[in-house]
Design goal:
By secondary structure, this protein is of the alpha+beta class. 35% of the residues lie in helices and 7% in strands. Keywords: 2Fe-2S, Iron, Iron-sulfur, Metal-binding.
């Protein structure tokens, strides 16, 4: 029996309310003016509409198409290609656990599995209070600080299962959390507006902009002829005496760890054998 569902075609997306439309059009004109070809503004405009509703809706794609003179199909093709654009409602805080190779074996898989249980959600799902969306993500170029958790693209380095659980509990409770490095944390909608190209007006946010940490810069400093530091100490072992070995990693990464199988509903890699 066929699974095809017959019915009425989907109606056109509704427009934004007049006051919202006027505000977004003013922002869109500012963004478009930065580019010699207006269609080049599509990526930041998708961030702009995402900052309005927390994800890219059909209304948002209609808006982008209209102000850029594109078809909705052209806009949809871009919005569905990039994972940075959300296609369904999501939380105030996107909590991404790196499960790429190094972070995985250092404890990232254990963190991701525990957070699923602790929050009662699966990959890409949002807690009932609308605060946290959990996802496993690919490399964040912070392998020196594995395992890494990112919240709205800000770094939380050298995480453990317990520190990650405390982090999401603080986010849900509205308590202030400070990234390991980089700008102070803001909501996902605020992050989307910044990614659209609008200034971060929060006091001190620009000055605190993220950069590579000391462990990541050792090779660059050696290449410049600078003296190498005696030892790069991670935040977890910063208080360890210099003549003593640092404590063992609390993630027990020497033990075999499951990798993508920690999220059986979203396995990585091909599901068929080669040649099928």
């Amino acid at each position: 029996m066929s699974d095809v569902q017959l019915g009425m075609p989907e109606l056109p997306a509704p427009d934004y309310p007049a006051e919202v439309r006027a505000r977004l059009e003013a922002d869109a004109r500012e963004v478009i003016a930065r580019y010699p070809d207006s269609r080049s503004a599509l990526l930041p405009l998708l961030h702009l509409v995402q900052s309005e509703e927390g994800h890219v809706t059909r209304t948002g794609m209609r808006f982008c198409a209209e102000v850029l003179g594109l078809t909705t199909a052209e806009v949809t093709a871009v919005a569905t290609f990039y994972t940075m654009y959300r296609r369904k409602p999501s939380g105030d805080y996107q909590v991404g656990v790196c499960t790429n190779t190094l972070c995985a074996v250092m404890g990232g898989d254990a963190i991701f599995e525990e957070l699923q249980s602790h929050l009662g959600v699966g990959n890409g799902e949002t807690t009932e209070d609308g605060k946290v969306t959990l996802e496993h993500i690919e490399c964040n170029a912070a392998c020196d600080y594995a395992p890494v958790v990112m919240v709205n693209w800000e770094f939380f380095d050298n995480q453990t299962v317990e520190s990650a659980k405390g982090l999401v509990d603080d986010l849900r409770a509205g308590r202030t959390v400070e990234p390991t490095r980089g700008a102070p944390l803001c909501t996902y909608k605020e992050t989307a507006r910044i990614l659209a190209g609008f200034p971060d007006a929060r006091p001190g946010a620009v000055e605190a902009g993220g950069s590579a940490g000391p462990a990541s810069l050792v090779g660059l400093r050696l290449a410049k002829g600078e003296a190498a530091p005696g030892r790069v100490v991670s935040p977890r072992s910063a208080d360890a005496p210099q003549d003593e070995a640092p404590p063992t990693h609390p993630s027990s990464h020497d033990a075999p760890q499951r990798t993508s199988a920690s999220d059986p509903h979203h396995p990585a890699g091909p599901v068929a054998e080669e040649g099928e």
